[in-house]
Each structure stands twice: as structure tokens, then as C-alpha cells.
Amino acid sequence: MSDLASTDYLGCLLKSCPIKSTESLSWLSQLRAQAIDRISTQKLPTRRDEEWRFTDISPIAHLPYQPSQPECNLHAHDIEHLSLKEAKNRLVFVDGHYSSNLSTIFDATALVIGNLPEFVATHASTLESHLGQHVQFDNNVFAALNTAFLRDGALIIVPKSIAIAEPIHLLFIATQKEVTSYPRCLVIGEAGSNVTLVEDYVALQQATYITNSVTEISLAANAQAKHIRIQRESAQAFHLANCAVSLAHASNYQSTSISLGSQISRYNLNVRLTDAAAECVVDGLTLISDRQLADTHTCIDHLKPNGTSRQHHKCIADDAAHAVFNGKIIVHPHAQQTNSSQSSRNLLLSKLAQVDTKPQLEIFADDVKCAHGATVGQLDQEEIFYLESRGLSAKAARNLLTYAFGAEIISRIPVTSLRQQLEQAVLNQTQSN
Amino acid sequence: MIDKNSRTILSVQDLRASINGTEILKGIDLTVKSGEIHAIMGLNGSGKSTFAKVLAGHSAYQITGGSVQFEGNNLLELPPEERARAGLFLAFQYPIEIPGVANTQFLRLAYNTVQTKRGKEELDPLEFDDFVREKMKLLEMNPDFLDRSVNEGFSGGEKKRNEILQMALLEPTLSILDETDSGLDIDALKTVANGVNQIANKNNATILVTHYQRLLDYIVPDFVHVMQAGRIVMTGGKELALELETRGYDWVNANKPVNGVIA
């Protein structure tokens, strides 16, 4: 892709940015203004960029989709099939715009939950110190774009020592075609708090559109969060996502991200263990077919001693699909006694399917335990024969084994109804061919 | 038991099979009738496990000659799943682990698939649970094994019990047990043997593939066959196993009868 195309693309998007002078120069509009400035100095990444060498996103340069408009015609029954019965709190965003009609807020007194703009006045200092501070946009044009168009967003602040038992469902629904939506989430767990989030990207119809999302999660000392992220966009969609997590002393973050949809998707997850004894579990499953491309880039950054990270990522690629996993783990000089493990396991179901997996360990401390491994393989003929010898057809045997490969990750999701939805989705996909 | 009114379940004639161009089975003849228990013994590499896998339809082997009739039908033209549905069962020497699939889910899937093909009713999860727990008692298996992933983290003995449990569920006409005794301590061996003995009846048949005589103390065969270099070189009654145990396989070479049978 030429630089010209890239400049045109970004320039075209910027034209639709809100004009700065109409708003007071609050910190929020300054943040947007900074982001707009950064966009003008950046280009769309190409495969010449190391971070993008496996993923060609040039197709989107030809699709300068304008921001989606807030026009929601959905009713509760249209999205009933997407609801999670365990979730009492649900924030719904349609094409990136908050829908108060479709949302349900149950714990308004126990925690801060709702649409970001509602809290800009009341929680200014908290928001200012977190929003746009975890996902850096200086060298990330998609995060900069998201921030430039920042308006609605999910905000959750779990107060000190409060544990929210039921999962909170953040549902992002795509309905418009040929638009770009900019979902945004900010989650702050105060000291000793505990929360479970389901960040869920869905489409109600097969259409081409772009989702460019940014999620920031900050956990204070001893806070815990489980973060389940489901990307089940339309098969024609483009999904570009950045998530950054900041972990304070002895906090615990557990992430399970599932990528099923989109023709091209990219998920950047950066977890920073900023203080001692923080822990994270970062699991992922990519299940794709046809000509889908799904790229997961993670970076787990151990900055202080006694941190623990465990990562288990799996990809299943069928037909001519292409899965990418790049898992960087950095252990800084002071991060002694770090215990880190990473595994990348990949299953290719057809001759044309492709997986690029790149474990990347950068260790600068000398007293650490770091293990990693990567495998790429096909279904085992002996396993298939075993199932056939029990009466299963060759196809049923392959489907069951493929399902089992993915189920290992899905089975760790702590929300029963979501797990069942996903198990069914995986069954449907593995039985479709 | 040997019964003159029995019917022929398996008839193997001059069966030859190769893997990657190397001939492993070099002309096997074997007839198994209902009610009978056959033991096939032999050293490692004699072809006995290959014979078991070829009967079950393993695709890695090419059939280069001979015929196999299973209850009057040409077995060799059936894919492995059709053989299983027709009533042939292979208990694996090394049962496969399937992480992510609960044992009960797998057992019910196998059971219902085979039942449907036999024109019988499927069982729903609750009905199946009662049914499988009853069968597990036969093998003194802990019901916890239902909820664990198929064979994952099972000990050698637990895996073999799980194989025999599948055999009990699927009620095969012909069961082939490939080295089922390997890796079992004596208590597990007795339990597994007891299970096999309870499943065996006058309408079905069993082939035990084994290296050692030990298993045959608990499952008494009607016929013992000795395999060597891809052929059955000697056939006798249960006393042949004891003879082998005391004299070793070298004795077979010295006493190989011309017609392959000693009486």
C-alpha cells in the first residue's frame, strides 16, 4: 500500500472528527486533540512494520468508512439470544453508541457503572488519570483514531474491597454496514475489589464494517478481575482492538479471549505487572475458516519482582484461514523471581490453512523461571482411528477432536451460559464442513 | 466354550498386509466361532498387534491378499466405523487421551451411534448415566471417571478398565483385546479379566492378543495360537500357553509342526 493511500485514508477519517472549538478545552477534549495530532504524524502500518509482518491490513485503506451514527432501532427481543442470564448488569452499545434502553444496571449503588460521558463531570480526576493513559496512542494509529472519536464508552469502577459476584456484560452490537465504530471501555478495580467482565463483540447481520476498539483495565493492590473477551463479528467485518491492563501490587488478572469472526482481526493485549507479586493468566482461542485472518499480539511485561504469568493460546485454522500469534514476554532487570510460562498450540485442518506463531521472550533478570513452547500440527490419525473404532464416522471423529482442542480453553470461562453458547458455536463451526 | 452348534463369526483366509511397502502379515488363517475365546501369543514384532489393527480397519495398513469374513460379510471392504457398528470391537493397547471431551460424553456418543445403527433407541444423558454406572460396577470403576476427560491422566490400569467399559457398553459380537494385560498390576488384571469373563457368552467371541501367559490364568482360552513373522505357526488348547511359558518361544521353532496344528 502506498503512503499516499494511507494518508488519504487517515485524512478522510479525520475530516469527520468533531471540530475542537465547539467544546470547552476540558482535559477530555485535550485528549482527543492530542490523538488527532498523533494521527497526522502516523501512517497505517504495513507488512514492512515488524509488528504487522504477518498481517496485511491494506484492504481497509480502501474503505474509509465514516463513523457510525447513533441510530438504534433495536428492541430487547432482537438481542435476547445474546443475553447472559448470570449477568445482572449489562451495558449495550449499538455501533459504538450507548443504548440506555437495552442496558440494564442493577448495581448502581454498589459500583460506578454506565456510559462514560455521564461521569466526566463527577469523576473527572479518576477518569483523567486513566483514560488514554494505559493504551498509548503515540505509536498506535488505531488507538489514536479511537481516542480521536472518543464519545460513548463503558465505564466501570469497582470500589475498594467490593466484590461483584455476577459477571458484567459489555455487549457491542454491529448493525450498520460500511461504517466504523469506536467502542471504548474503561475498567478500574480499586484495592481489594473483584469483578468479572464479559466484553462481547457481535453482529446481527453479515455486513462489512470496521470495529476499532480500545479497552483499558487498571487494577489496584490486591484487586482481581476476570476478563472474557469474545470477538464474534460478521465474517466480512474488520476488527482492530487494543487492550491494556495495568496491575498493581498482588493484583490478579485472568483473561480469556476468543476470536471467531471478522475477515481480518487484530487484537493487541498488553499486560503490565507494574508492582510486585502481581499475577496474570492470559488464555486465548482463535477458531477461523474460509479466508479469515486473525492476529493476536500479546505482551506481558514484568516490571517488578515475584510476578507470575501463565499464557495458553490455541489456534484452529481451516480452509485457507491464517492465524497469527505473537506472544512477547518481557522480564525487566528488577523483576527477579518472576515465574512465567507460555504455550502456543495450533491446529491446521486443511492444506491451505496457515499459522504463524512467534513466542518472544526478552529476559533481563537472572533469577527467573520462564518456560515457553509452540506446536503446530494436524489432527492425530491414531486419535481419529480410536474414535472410528468406537463407531464414529471419520467426519464425526475429526469434529469431536477439533471441538476438544478448542474446548480446553472455553471450559475455563467462568460464566456457564456463555460457555454453553460458545461450545455450541464451536460445535456448529466444526460440524459445518 | 467350544460348542458344535456354534456359528462362525470370523473367518480369516491367507490374510496379508503391509505397512509402507513392508509385509507384516504373511498369510494368516483363523476361524473363530461363537462362544469361543482365542488367545494369540507371540513375541514383539511377530505381527499380532498388526493383525488386531488390520481387523479393526486401521488405514495405515494395506491389505495385499486374502479375505476376512465377519458374520458372513466381507469385513475388509468396510470402513472402521462400519466394523464397529457391525459388532467388532478393539480394546487398544494404548488407549488415546482426548483432553476436552468428558468421558461420559464420549461413551454416550459411541453408545448412541452404535445403537442407532442397530435400529435401537438412543439414551438421553440421564438414562445413560444410570446405565453406565451399572456397567462401571462390573469393573469396580469410580464414577468420577465419567466427568474426567477421556483417558486424560488415567493410570494404565484405569485406561484398560475404560476400554473394557466401552466393550461392555457396545456389546460387540467379536472383541479383540490387544495386550490388555500390559501395565496392569495383579488386582487390576483380575478385575479386568472378571469384566471380560462376564461379557463373554455363547453368542459372542473374544480374541486375546498377549505376550504373556499371565492373563490366561484368569481368562481361560479355548484355543491358543502362536504367531511368528506374520503367520500363525502353532495352534493348541490352553495348555499350549503353559508350555510356552515354561519352554519359551524358541521351543516353537524346534517343534513347529508341518501343518501348523498340534493336537
Can you describe this structure?
Chain A has 433 residues and is an alpha/beta fold. Chain A is built from eight helices and 20 strands. Chain A is globular. The model of chain A has no long low-confidence stretch (mean pLDDT 92). By secondary structure, chain B is α/β, with parallel strands linked by helices. Chain B has one domain (8-255): 3-Layer(aba) Sandwich (Rossmann fold), CATH 3.40.50.300. Chain B is built from eight helices and twelve strands. Chain B has helices spanning 48-56, 80-86, 103-117, 125-138, 156-170, 186-199, 239-247, 250-255; strands at residues 8-19, 22-33, 37-42, 62-70, 73-74, 88-91, 98-102, 149-150, 174-178, 205-210, 223-228, 231-236. In chain B, strand 1 and strand 2 (22-33) form a beta hairpin. Chain B is globular, with a radius of gyration of 18 Å. Chain B starts with 7 loop residues before the first strand and ends in an 8-residue tail after the last helix. The model of chain B has no long low-confidence stretch (mean pLDDT 92).
Q: In what order do the strands lie side by side in the largest sheet of chain B?
A: 6-9-10-3-11-12
- Number of distinct beta strands of chain A: 20
Mean pLDDT of chain A: 92
- Largest binding interface between chains: A-B, 25 and 29 residues
**Radius of gyration of chain B (Å):** 18 Å
Give, in spatial order, the strands making up the sheet with the most strands of chain A: 2-1-5-8-10-12-14-16-18-20
Helix content of chain A: 10-25%
Q: What level of helicity do the residues of chain B show? A: 25-40%
CATH topology of chain B: Rossmann fold
Distance between the termini of chain B: 17 Å
Tell me the β content of chain A: 35-45%
Q: Regarding quaternary structure, how should these chains be classified? A: heterodimer
Order of helices and strands of chain A: HHHEEEHHEEEEEEEEEEEEEEEEEHHH
Taking the sheet with the most strands of chain B, its summary is: 6 strands, mixed
**H-E order of chain B:** EEEHEEHEEHHEHEHEEEHH
Rough shape of chain B? Answer: globular
